[in-house]
């Protein structure tokens, strides 16, 4: 076992791999949701500043296969506008992740995940006219949450699901936007020193389980009931938050 893993027990590593697989399942099916499951639990297991780059690298590499089809189906102009806002938000989130107290970050991440879950459960959608400044502003907020805790998806989902596009188009737009923010975040993490050898080794360890989850989730997208799977994802997010609250240790 690489020396980078010395500070983690076998149980900690096994649980991290398990959570990564579950997170990949949600991501493969819906196009988002991995961070809402992985980050609360991963932050409790290995720390926020390790969990964030682990998810970034594993997801960024293993999701490359989704991009060609997403490019064909997505609303590319809207994605570009949203990405222009994320350019501002991502570095700020990375700066907070790099310098904030780890315990405080765990509370913030659990709070963010809980808030985003409530947003998704409420069914609230943005009903205003999707103007360019609003789209860019949503991208900035999503980028901030992404740089801090890889939680880019929920603000984007609540905004884009307000339109008349099909679920497949929205999913493709989300995937393409994630591809852009992954590049921004990797650069920000690298410049901030958040990308470490330990994070890269751990990303390699969880990658097979995450890949299996992505594959299974993407296959289920074509056969499973979206409503049933959505409820399952919400339950998994809630379980991840509740079991990862810093009050337990």
Automatic annotation (TrEMBL):
Matches recorded under Pfam families: TauE
Keyword annotations from UniProtKB, A to Z: Cell membrane, Membrane, Transmembrane, Transmembrane helix, Transport
GO cellular component term, pick one: plasma membrane
Membrane protein topology class: Multi-pass membrane protein
Transmembrane segments: 44-67, 79-97, 103-122, 134-152, 172-192, 199-216, 228-248
Subcellular location(s) of the protein: Cell membrane
Protein family (similarity comment): Belongs to the 4-toluene sulfonate uptake permease (TSUP) (TC 2.A.102) family.
Name under which the protein is recorded: Probable membrane transporter protein
UniProt source species: Aestuariivirga litoralis
């Amino acid at each position: 076992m690489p020396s980078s893993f010395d500070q983690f027990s076998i149980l900690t590593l096994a649980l991290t791999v398990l959570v990564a697989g579950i997170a990949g399942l949600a991501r493969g099916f819906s196009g988002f949701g991995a961070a809402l499951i992985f980050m609360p639990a991963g932050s409790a297991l290995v720390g926020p500043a390790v969990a964030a780059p682990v998810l970034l690298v594993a997801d960024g590499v293993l999701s490359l296969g989704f991009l060609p089809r997403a490019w064909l189906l997505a609303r590319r102009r809207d994605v570009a506008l949203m990405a222009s806002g994320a350019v501002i938000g991502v570095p700020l989130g990375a700066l907070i992740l790099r310098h904030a107290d780890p315990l405080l970050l765990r509370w913030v991440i659990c709070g963010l995940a809980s808030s985003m879950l409530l947003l998704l459960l409420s069914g609230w959608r943005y009903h205003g006219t999707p103007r360019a400044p609003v789209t860019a502003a949503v991208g900035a907020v999503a980028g901030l949450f992404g740089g801090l805790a890889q939680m880019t998806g929920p603000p984007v989902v609540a905004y884009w699901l307000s339109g008349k596009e099909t679920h497949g188009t929205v999913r493709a737009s989300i995937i393409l936007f994630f591809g852009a923010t992954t590049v921004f975040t990797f650069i920000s993490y690298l410049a901030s020193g958040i990308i470490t050898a330990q994070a890269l080794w751990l990303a390699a360890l969880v990658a097979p389980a995450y890949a299996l989850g992505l594959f299974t989730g993407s296959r289920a997208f074509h056969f499973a009931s979206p409503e049933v799977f959505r409820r399952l994802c919400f339950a998994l997010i809630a379980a991840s938050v509740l079991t990862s609250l810093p009050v337990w240790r």
